[in-house]
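Here is one chain, start to finish.
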Amino acid sequence: MELLLSGKWIGEPQGLYSAEILSVDYLTDLSELSGFEGFVVVSYDLTKGTLGIPVKESRLPHLIAIELGKFTRVMARPSIGCSLRTVSSSLGELEFKRRVEKIKEYIAQGDVYQINLTSRFDFAIEGSPRDLFFSFYERQPVPYAFFLEIGDLFILSGSMELFLKKEGDLILSKPIKGTGRTSEEILSSEKERAENLMITDMMRNDLGRVSRTGSVKVEELFRVERYRTLCQMHSTVVGKTDKSVDEILRATFPPASVTGAPKYRAVQIIDELEPHPRGYYCGAAGLIKKNGDFTLSVLIRTAYGGGSKISYFAGCGIVWDSDPEKEWEELLLKTKAFYP
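Its structure:
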């Protein structure tokens, strides 16, 4: 068993840290997180419980709860003998573009304003998943990266998106929508700004369900962060709350940025159009403290697998003026850090 975390998780400015694993529990309901302290992985499969909508399930544990001991700095080393061989994808270029057009039909009918459409890329892995994570992290260091290996299951996340952070009575979210090669490309795009605004408004509404009346506000809008392979736009929403982690997740999960607007209908359409279960992808993961504070990422830029098989996922926000060709190009851009 092993858990590696980027330094941001524990308040360090950089680097990777090994977390001592004291115990692992597989849970089925968010209520079981009450009083928990440690690292948690939340599957997108729990959408069925939070929204009451059946979704394709991965047959993986819905909740992984890991009790932790001390943290030790480790030196990241790039893979020498680890390699990936492409096996298949759940949606190839033609199928993906067709579904973009289908989403635009739903938008024209007034069903939704935006849908996050994803594809799964399947690989055969030769070598150590741990080494693969080191290479992944080296190509694109991000604040919420982690590697988890428990038995035959391993998860690699290169997420830069903060889903929820609670400190005292402050609750904060930084939804990401808007992707490009440069900040100028994103900021000059009306489409990217419109996507971000829709999701920010959704997150404001979600936090409003668990926050004190009048406390929710958008603190920052359209901020672009630069990473090694791309740039991303995020906004910041804050509120004041006295709710517990399980109560907050019931009101906000799955994350708005990986579903669409409005969320309920978006999730239904996603399940119709995506042939694959999302599993841990588009779920959440992070640290929960004994005092009830927590930090959770959105599981974007995430892969998981077992044995010699691994699947990486990528997605795009589709709106009325989305161009299928450009959306496909964006999808591929998001794979570069994992599979250059």
